[in-house]
């Protein structure tokens, strides 16, 4: 960054007296990570929007911050937007926090931010703790590129389909470290699905209770981690990471070659059904690729 691009403390975008929307990152477990700028921004806000007012109240009390708080969550965000935009247009200073970490990432706020941008209202961010990035730096897996996908669907069929789409993307050329959050009671099943769909030997890591007293990062092949957590129940906040495929991964060539061979004698539907079982991918994902290959073949 060039010297002229550096912003000094007294020139930060969230100056007292200036209205606008501020996205404020909060600690993911260690109060020592609550930055001075985050404290100043929340102290100067007219309103703080949060997932759970009780959780945020404890955080604010730790720094003797007195400010009005109101809930903003998936069930009320859309209906609250018009009134909140009206307040911002009158010069009110509103901050958004999540229960822990960086707002919007697996948390509410995106729709309000998009509405504020559309209304030409100043939007700024106070960066800070983030579980996905912290886990990535501790995992020992390639740090970039990476793909963060939030939480997977809780139901097995939907989860496997979502993972299957990512595996199909790898077979089309995607090579990145994959990151998810997961609930403790679903971790063993999720890891078993990772091992099944991506391969038991794929490098992976499970980060638990980051920045807290019982912080733990367990690293190893996906199959080994699946076996461990099948026998050892997990607790706390969890982030799961899966390393990129090996350079000699022939998945893409294998999928296309199988489909081309099947399409030589079968319909698109039947070819997709046959190959889906062989490559362990969702049928609709394989069907979409079969359609693409059939169109390429039939083009003059």
Automatic annotation (TrEMBL):
<keyword id="KW-0949">S-adenosyl-L-methionine</keyword>
<feature type="domain" description="RsmI HTH">
    <location>
        <begin position="251"/>
        <end position="293"/>
    </location>
</feature>
<dbReference type="InterPro" id="IPR053910">
    <property type="entry name" value="RsmI_HTH"/>
</dbReference>
<dbReference type="InterPro" id="IPR014777">
    <property type="entry name" value="4pyrrole_Mease_sub1"/>
</dbReference>
<dbReference type="Pfam" id="PF23016">
    <property type="entry name" value="RsmI_C"/>
</dbReference>
<keyword id="KW-0489">Methyltransferase</keyword>
<comment type="similarity">
    <text>Belongs to the methyltransferase superfamily. RsmI family.</text>
</comment>
<dbReference type="GO" id="GO:0070677">
    <property type="term" value="F:rRNA (cytosine-2'-O-)-methyltransferase activity"/>
</dbReference>
<dbReference type="InterPro" id="IPR000878">
    <property type="entry name" value="4pyrrol_Mease"/>
</dbReference>
<feature type="domain" description="Tetrapyrrole methylase">
    <location>
        <begin position="21"/>
        <end position="225"/>
    </location>
</feature>
<dbReference type="InterPro" id="IPR035996">
    <property type="entry name" value="4pyrrol_Methylase_sf"/>
</dbReference>
<protein>
    <recommendedName>
        <fullName>Ribosomal RNA small subunit methyltransferase I</fullName>
        <ecNumber>2.1.1.198</ecNumber>
    </recommendedName>
</protein>
<keyword id="KW-0698">rRNA processing</keyword>
<dbReference type="InterPro" id="IPR018063">
    <property type="entry name" value="SAM_MeTrfase_RsmI_CS"/>
</dbReference>
<feature type="compositionally biased region" description="Acidic residues">
    <location>
        <begin position="1"/>
        <end position="11"/>
    </location>
</feature>
<dbReference type="InterPro" id="IPR014776">
    <property type="entry name" value="4pyrrole_Mease_sub2"/>
</dbReference>
<dbReference type="Pfam" id="PF00590">
    <property type="entry name" value="TP_methylase"/>
</dbReference>
<comment type="function">
    <text>Catalyzes the 2'-O-methylation of the ribose of cytidine 1402 (C1402) in 16S rRNA.</text>
</comment>
<keyword id="KW-0963">Cytoplasm</keyword>
<feature type="region of interest" description="Disordered">
    <location>
        <begin position="1"/>
        <end position="22"/>
    </location>
</feature>
<dbReference type="GO" id="GO:0005737">
    <property type="term" value="C:cytoplasm"/>
</dbReference>
<keyword id="KW-0808">Transferase</keyword>
<dbReference type="InterPro" id="IPR008189">
    <property type="entry name" value="rRNA_ssu_MeTfrase_I"/>
</dbReference>
């Amino acid at each position: 960054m060039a010297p002229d691009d550096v912003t000094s403390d007294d020139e930060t975008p969230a100056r007292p007296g200036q209205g606008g929307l501020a996205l404020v990152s909060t600690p993911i477990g260690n109060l020592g990570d609550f930055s001075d700028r985050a404290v100043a921004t929340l102290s100067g806000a007219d309103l703080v929007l949060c997932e759970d007012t009780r959780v945020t109240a404890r955080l604010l009390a730790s720094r003797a911050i007195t400010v009005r708080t109101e809930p903003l969550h998936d069930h009320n965000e859309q209906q609250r937007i018009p009134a909140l935009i009206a307040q911002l247009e009158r010069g009110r200073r509103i901050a958004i926090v999540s229960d822990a970490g960086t707002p919007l990432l697996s948390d509410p706020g995106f729709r309000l931010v998009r509405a504020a941008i559309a209304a030409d209202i100043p939007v700024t961010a106070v960066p800070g703790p983030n579980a996905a990035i912290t886990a990535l730096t501790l995992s020992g897996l390639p740090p970039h590129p990476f793909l963060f996908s939030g939480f997977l669907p809780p139901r097995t069929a939907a989860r496997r389909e979502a993972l299957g789409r990512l595996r199909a993307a790898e077979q089309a050329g995607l090579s990145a470290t994959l990151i998810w959050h997961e609930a403790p009671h679903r971790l063993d099943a999720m890891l078993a699905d990772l091992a099944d769909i991506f391969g038991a030997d794929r490098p992976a890591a499970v980060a638990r209770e980051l920045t807290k007293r019982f912080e733990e990062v367990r690293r190893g092949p996906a199959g080994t981690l699946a076996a461990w957590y099948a026998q050892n129940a997990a607790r706390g906040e969890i982030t799961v990471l899966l390393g990129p495929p090996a350079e000699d991964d022939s998945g893409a060539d294998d999928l296309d070659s199988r489909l081309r061979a099947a399409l030589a004698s079968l319909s698109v539907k039947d070819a997709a059904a046959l190959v889906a079982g062989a490559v362990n991918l969702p049928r609709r994902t394989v069907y979409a690729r079969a359609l693409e290959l059939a169109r390429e073949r039939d083009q003059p």
